[in-house]
Design goal:
heterodimer, A: 258 residues, mainly alpha, B: 316 residues, alpha/beta, Rossmann fold, 4-stranded antiparallel beta sheet, 14 strands
């Protein structure tokens, strides 16, 4: 019960703080529309008007999942960084709460926020391309993302604990985000990449998330497509183990009571 | 059983000092170097000393944020390293009066957040937060966003935060720093009230007047070592600091005396004596002046301040 109270308290505070940053929400909503329309316009020009609206939808969902992937991969890192800057982290550490619970609560908040964000963008795309009838697939995509984003929390924990050592989130998160953006097929099919990059893209969760989300919204998703996601849950376990090991090493090396 | 006890606490920080692009040397900063002390329950205990003396390190070790390199410490009977979870449940902490809050949440929402970190339900945390907003004088301001708060309001919210879990012991690291006189007075009154209710208050401060007026026990720390310890009056007695006796004479000119004479605020001559026996010397000066036919306007005996104690201890 105590842990649930702690978790709910952090989720509520973080969600309130996030939703009061209107500028952030407006930016993340506009970003995929802006870039997908740009690439769609370029496609129309190059093909002499031959680009179909489904190709715009492909880009729209790709850019949206890319935003989600990038923010979720480094949200724990920024949680720690902001905590260090504002003094909140010391107060969390001085309270009877496990840092893992605190960081998982923050990751959960981010997941909820990002799913809500995805719904807003995807709803507009679905209505524009497939018609309002397809909005029923939004329920399916919520369930799909709730499962498919769990491995990303594992990545998130890994980047988060590395931030404790490096003290700055950028060196780690920028490197991971650069690789993820390249190999995950957000805006182009990964079969266009060299084979080793395709393999890298396949073993990370992001290409499966973006393809799955597109298929669920288009009504072409098959249950067999869930199987890689079950294996990808290994990233969550890996992230949890890495976080625990990182904590122990940090305490031993720094003398800070974690 | 004492509220806080520690023995031989040592904490060294290792840092790399860059002398040139390729040349870095290891440097060791002795933040605490064998500190032992004991704090009774229900008292206000102050740790004072110059910047970098080790005060904040001490607070951070006792509040379980840092692990000492050597020695042991107990808070509320629990070991700060082996039983950190227990210690965290019974302490409240203020490290910087204006930090630690979500700027886009209200004061009330921030307090509820901290209450829930201690495992309180939403209803309990909200009830407690409202009580503390009243106690600290924030009241309706609890509904305003933290980013709109003045420094004084932030300091009050910090104290409220430290009390959200009804702690037995509170650690306040310079709780009135940067506050205007009225806000600082409110915080000081609050500290007095907490101690009167039986809470142990462990504070650090650079304001010696505040320390003198609030504290039952004062410890002076310098370069990580304790250099003086006792109640404010004990410290003054032990150092045998002098009192200043001033006797104002109602006269146009300075009286004929071998004692030092200055001109007072009201323009009259003031006979001034620095002494360790203020009562005897005061009577002597008054007798001498009356014997010479002078009228006495005003007398004043100034006690040595804790600031003088600190100055003497730190410079010796």
């Amino acid at each position: 019960m105590r842990v649930l109270n702690q978790l709910a308290g952090i989720v509520e505070a973080e969600l309130k703080a996030l939703t009061r940053e209107a500028g952030v929400f407006i930016f993340v909503v506009f970003f995929p529309f802006m870039f997908s329309l740009l690439t769609y316009g370029a496609g129309q020009t190059l093909t002499g008007g031959g680009a179909s609206p489904t190709q715009w939808f492909y880009q729209l969902i790709g850019f949206t999942i890319m935003m989600i992937a990038l923010t979720m991969s480094s949200s724990s890192a920024w949680y720690f960084r902001r905590g260090m800057m504002t003094g909140r982290l010391e107060y969390i550490l001085a309270a009877p709460i496990s840092p893992l619970i605190a960081v998982l609560s923050s990751a959960l908040t981010n997941t909820i926020f990002n799913i809500a964000y995805f719904i807003v963008v995807a709803a507009v795309g679905v209505i524009a391309v497939y018609g309002p009838y397809y909005l029923v697939h939004i329920v399916g995509v919520i369930l799909f993302l709730a499962l498919a984003l769990l491995p990303v929390i594992g990545f998130n924990l890994l980047v988060g604990i590395l931030t404790i050592f490096f003290r700055e989130p950028e060196p780690v998160s920028n490197l991971i985000n650069a690789v993820v953006s390249t190999v995950s097929g957000f805006t182009y099919p990964i079969i266009l990449l060299p084979s080793f990059l395709q393999t890298l893209g396949q073993i990370m969760p992001y290409s499966h998330i973006v393809n799955g989300a597109r298929d669920v919204l288009a009504g072409s998703f098959r249950l067999v497509q869930l199987s890689p996601h079950l294996f990808l849950l290994g990233y969550l376990i890996l992230g949890l183990v890495a976080f625990r090991v990182g904590e122990a090493v940090y305490v031993r090396k720094s003398g800070v009571h974690w | 059983m004492s509220a806080i006890a520690c023995e031989g606490l040592r904490k060294y920080y290792r840092a790399k000092v860059r002398r040139s692009f390729f040349n870095r040397i290891d440097s060791v900063i002795r933040a605490l170097d064998g500190v032992s002390l004991e704090v009774e329950k229900g008292v206000v205990f102050s740790l004072v000393g110059p910047n970098g003396a080790g005060k904040t390190t001490m607070v951070k070790i006792l509040s379980t944020l840092l692990i000492p390199d050597a020695g042991w410490a107990q808070v509320g009977g629990y070991d700060v390293v082996k039983q950190a979870g227990r210690v965290r449940g019974i302490i409240g902490l203020v490290l910087a009066p204006d930090k630690g809050f979500y700027t886009r949440l209200t004061g009330l929402e921030n307090l509820v957040y901290y209450g829930r970190l201690y495992g309180l339900s939403k209803e309990e945390a909200t009830r407690k937060a409202k009580e503390l907003l009243e106690l600290t004088g924030l009241g309706e301001d609890g509904m305003r966003l933290f980013e709109e708060y003045s420094l004084g309001m932030r300091a009050k919210l910090s104290i409220a935060k430290a009390l959200i879990n009804e702690p037995e012991i509170v650690f306040l690291d310079e709780p009135t720093i940067g506050l205007d006189p009225l806000s600082a007075r409110r915080i000081r009154n609050l500290i007095k009230d907490l101690a009167a209710e039986g809470m142990t208050v462990f504070m650090t401060s650079h304001n010696m007047w505040e320390v003198e007026n609030l504290s039952n026990t004062v410890v002076v720390i310098k370069s990580g070592r304790i250099v003086a310890k006792g109640s404010p009056s004990e410290l003054k007695e032990r150092l045998n600091l002098s009192y200043r006796v001033e006797v104002e004479i109602i006269a146009e000119k300075a009286p004929d005396t071998s004692l030092p004479v200055t001109t007072g605020d009201r323009g009259y001559p003031v006979v001034t004596v620095t002494t360790n026996k203020p009562s005897e010397d005061l009577v002597k000066v008054i007798d001498e002046m009356r014997g010479k036919g002078y009228s006495i306007g005003m007398v004043r005996v100034q006690e040595p301040s804790l600031e003088e104690v600190l100055t003497q201890v730190l410079s010796s």
